[in-house]
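Supplementary Note 3. Input sequence used for the single-chain structure prediction.
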Amino acid sequence: MLASLYPSDISAGMRLVFLLMLTMTAFAANSLLTRLAVSEGHSEPATFAMIRVLSGAGVLIVLVALRDRDALTLSRMAWPGAFSLTIYMLGFSLAYSTLDAGLGALILFGVVQLVMFAHAALGPQRPNTGQIAGSFIAFAGLIVLLWPETARAVDPLGAALMGIAGVGWAAYTIIGQRAIDPLAATMRSFVLCFPMTFILFIGMGVAANSYGVLLAVICGAATSALGYALWYAILPGISGPTAAVSQLSVPVITLFAGVLLLGESLTLKMVLAAVLVLSGVGGAIRAKAAV
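The predicted structure, written as discrete structure tokens, is reproduced below.
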């Protein structure tokens, strides 16, 4: 199925890079859509999260049903992925009510790196020197890119919630490395995630205008549902460290998309930091390919 996404004469390494960047672009689009909806006051965070999960589940159910109705069944094996996805949604949505966006991204991706590298170190896919070096370089670039320019007190609860979100996303990614049917696995996670999200969020304020609802539907049905399904399709073929480091490119893509689509300012610091991040990510991927 994935072979139709790229020409057959492209090398395996280029195919991997293409699919990884396509997935990271989808993740970056999620950030932009969430910022537009929540930061601009078009939707409450809880409302946006519930609509996002529900619309994603709906699209995935249709896609799985068109391909194989027998795959629509749920199983106990789907609960870990759904629970970790719910933890991520909960922590991510609530943390940004008190955290600066840049600092929140640093905490999120820092925790993801720590959890995924620790998991890899305890298993057969131990990170090599090149992957570790690439991770440090990329994260250093991320610090340069996202560190707040003005000192301000960090809300402990917001930081803790974003840390929890990082653990949830890292767990969701690790679970995806065992996915046999990526599309069906993603569908089951979204379907089971919705009732948990509904129960957790229903008392936190439900409000959104029509534009906020539209953004949440796009975020759920397109960039989340399809992006996560593609992520699960890629994960079995890459190592945990590669998966962890590649995600550090998401804030870079998000910021540059903001420049192109939202008219935000482009600075020299952004360019230099982006070069540092992408160099580290590329170095980590090449280090794995050389093993």
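Residues 75 and 224 are 22 Å apart (CA to CA). Confidence is low (pLDDT under 50) at residues 1-9.
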